[in-house]
Amino acid sequence: MPIRVNLDVMLARRKMRAKQLAEQIGLSETQLSMLRTEKVRGIRFTTLAKICLILDCKPADILDYDIDHADLHLTDED
């Protein structure tokens, strides 16, 4: 998938551990780890908002997109 999660970069910039972030936003460490390693299919906007608030950043600082014209043919089930 062309969406990449750069959460580890922001955590390093803020000198914060994933465990601390997970506690502050109310996620389990496992859930946050799955997000960090791109093993999830999506993220709730409320969760993204909490992450951005705690890390003092914008969604674009955490999520990146590599252009892939094949995305035009993806369905919600892909």
Name the descriptors.
single chain; about 80 residues; mainly alpha; two-stranded antiparallel ribbon; 2 strands; about 50% helix
Description of the structure:
With 78 residues, this protein is mainly alpha-helical. The protein has five helices and two strands; from the N terminus they run βαααααβ. It has a two-stranded antiparallel sheet with strand order 1-2. The radius of gyration is 13 Å and the shape is globular.
Summarize the structure.
By secondary structure, the chain is mainly alpha-helical. It has helices at about 5-15, 20-25, 30-35, 45-55, 60, and strands at about 5, 65. It is globular, with a radius of gyration of 13 Å.
The class by helix and strand makeup works out as: mainly alpha
Strand order of the biggest β-sheet: 1-2
- The number of helical runs is 5
Beta percentage is 5-15%
Number of strands: 2
Choose one word for the global shape.
globular
Based on CA atoms alone, the radius of gyration comes out at: 13 Å
The biggest sheet, with number of strands, parallel, antiparallel or mixed sense and barrel status, is: 2 strands, antiparallel
Distance between the termini: 10 Å
Order of helical and strand elements: EHHHHHE
Residue share in helix: 40-55%
Mean pLDDT: 91
pLDDT < 50 runs, ≥5 residues: none
